[in-house]
Amino acid sequence: MSESGLEAVSNPSEIFLTEHYSDSEVLAGLAVAVTVDGSRTFVLEIQALCASGSSTARHVDGVRESRADMIIAVLMKQAGLKLQDSAIFLNVVSGFKLTETAGDLAIAAAICSSFLEFPIPTDVAFIGEIGLGGELRTVPRMDKRVLAVAKLGYKRCVIPKTAEKSLRSLKMDITIVGCRTLKEMINTVFREG
């Protein structure tokens, strides 16, 4: 709604993404997730902050607390991250409530990025569910989700390896990075160079 009346929103995902400055360290702790709400696909940003020595154990906004607890536990047990001495703050930009498991991988990536102090490149998106064994699981409508990030100009999309095959037939200008486990995702995304 504007002064002149209703205006169409051509890209609703822009509301949920912040401006990125590639030379800034502010990118550590940010990851992009893709969610489907009804028939609409939204690309949104997950923010994480890991702070050692804080009196707060955990604060979660926009993510189910039980889901966040599970992802943090899997990061510690299956991926070997020593998060037990860190306060972890999670936030979904613009107050969006992430209710589906397709955002699990982005949540984990944001936490890793903050904990390792390693910014994720701004052209990478994450789609996938995390199992208790650290395995990555596919989610419904993978094709629609990947097409949405490709249209927005993202160059890479990290997904569960099991979903790779079904996306091969799609003609899109994006590199699909399939990973089997959370540990494999960390080793792929957070390596030097």
Keywords:
193 residues; 7-stranded mixed beta sheet; Ribosomal Protein S5, domain 2
Mean pLDDT: 87
Q: Detail the poorly predicted runs.
A: none
Largest sheet: 7 strands, mixed
- N to C succession of SSEs: EEEHEHEEEHEHEH
Query: What is the rounded distance between the termini?
Result: 45 Å
Strand order of the largest sheet: 3-4-2-1-5-8-9
CATH class: Alpha Beta
Anisotropy-based shape: globular
Rg, alpha carbons: 16 Å
What CATH architecture label applies? 2-Layer Sandwich
Instruction: Give the structural class.
Output: alpha/beta
Query: What count of helical segments does DSSP give?
Result: 5
Protein name: Lon proteolytic domain-containing protein
GO biological process, one term: recombinational repair
Organism: Asparagus officinalis
Pfam families: ChlI (PF13541)
Write the layout of secondary structure elements.
Blueprint (H helix, E strand, L loop, with lengths): L29 E8 L2 E13 L5 E4 L3 H13 L8 E7 L11 H13 L7 E3 L2 E2 L5 E2 L4 H10 L4 E5 H7 L7 E5 L2 H8 L4
Parallel strand pairs: 1-5, 3-4, 5-8, 8-9
Antiparallel strand pairs: 1-2, 2-4, 6-7
Structure in a nutshell:
By secondary structure, this protein is α/β, with parallel strands linked by helices. It has helices spanning 65-77, 104-116, 142-151, 161-167, 182-189, and strands at residues 30-37, 40-52, 58-61, 86-92, 124-126, 129-130, 136-137, 156-160, 175-179. It has one domain: 2-Layer Sandwich (Ribosomal Protein S5, domain 2).
